[in-house]
Amino acid sequence: MVRGLFTGASGMVVQMDRMDEIANNLANVDLTGYKKDTAIQKAFPEMLMHRLNDDGVHVFPVGSVDTTPLVGKLGTGVETNEVFTNFSQGAMKQTENDFDMALEGPGFLVVQTPLGERMTRNGSFVLNSDGYLVTSSGDYVMGENGPIKLKKNNFVVDQDGVVWQNATFAADDKRLVSQAENTWDNLQRVDRLQIVDVKRDRYLQKQGNSYWQSTDASGPPDILPAGARPKVRQGFLEGSNVNPVQEMVEMIEVNRAYDANQKTVQTEDALIGKLWNEVVKV
User: Fold this and answer.
1) How far is it, in rounded angstroms, from Cα 39 to Cα 55?
2) Rounded to an integer, what distance in angstroms lies between the CA atom of residue 128 and that of residue 234?
3) What phi and psi, each to the nearest 5 degrees, are found at residue 234?
């Protein structure tokens, strides 16, 4: 009976972990570039149950064999094995904003934060006061040659991530440019977006704000060569890959599973109380 208490309690703890992940997914359903998490469970080893009151050991010249009648298997509980991140592609949302970038395919953009370089799929960028491309948090977006400096209405990004500008208007930082006057007659390459990937993305560590940090298990980030890079879509954002309907269904399943484990614990507690208050007393 005591084992039944631990089995039911372990099931309740696992459902609490699942609920935390579902709640986090729903809270970030509108976060650009967010990837959903899933709590993976692992069962403890099962135990074979035999009738202990029968003499089930048969001895013969080269050893012995257990002939006790087999009752069945007994589960000993479950635990949360890992939190798995699903890196499937999110839906593309067209914004028609030149500063928005989305990646179509595996890979990450690189940003420079106060804690070092981080990877992200959140391509919602702006220009800071110095003319550098930054995130909404003010972190620099990295090209292969360093931070990228641009001018509004004077840059385009192709599908390979190469940033181009009209050299005619690039020299004077104070010179404002309008789309109507820019004829793109003097294209000049500025840089190429630094796009990286790791060998085992399932071991990446989330940092918040759609940032990721590599670990020893994931391997270091490597710049993707031509032909292996994802397509860069300027004027688009990648939405989260969370399906709110599916998450709500899973939330209902978690509530029912938690309730079932809770009733198991209550039943075991009632049986133990009956054992001590009635059977043992007799």
Assistant:
1) 44
2) 19
3) -75, 140
Other CB atoms within 10 Å distance of the CB of residue 128: 14
Rounded to 5 degrees, φ, ψ at 230 are -70, 160
Closest by CA to 37, choosing from 20, 29, 27, 25, is 25
Q: Please report, for residues 63, 200, 201, 209, 220, the alpha-carbon distance to residue 217 in angstroms, rounded to integers and kept in the order given.
A: 47, 7, 9, 22, 9
Query: Model's pTM, two decimal places?
Result: 0.80
The total number of residues shown for the chain amounts to 282
Q: Determine contact, residues 222/196, Cβ cutoff 8 Å.
A: yes
H or E element that contains 31: none
Q: How many CB atoms lie within 10 A of CB 27?
A: 11
Looking only at Cα atoms, what is the longest distance across the chain? 100
CA proximity to 202, closest of 189, 218, 191:
218
pLDDT digits (tens, 9 = 90+) for 29-88: 999 999 999 998 888 777 777 766 666 676 777 776 666 777 777 777 888 888 889 999
Q: In Å, how far from its chain's centre is CA 77?
A: 26
| CA 208 – CA 54 distance, rounded (Å) | 59
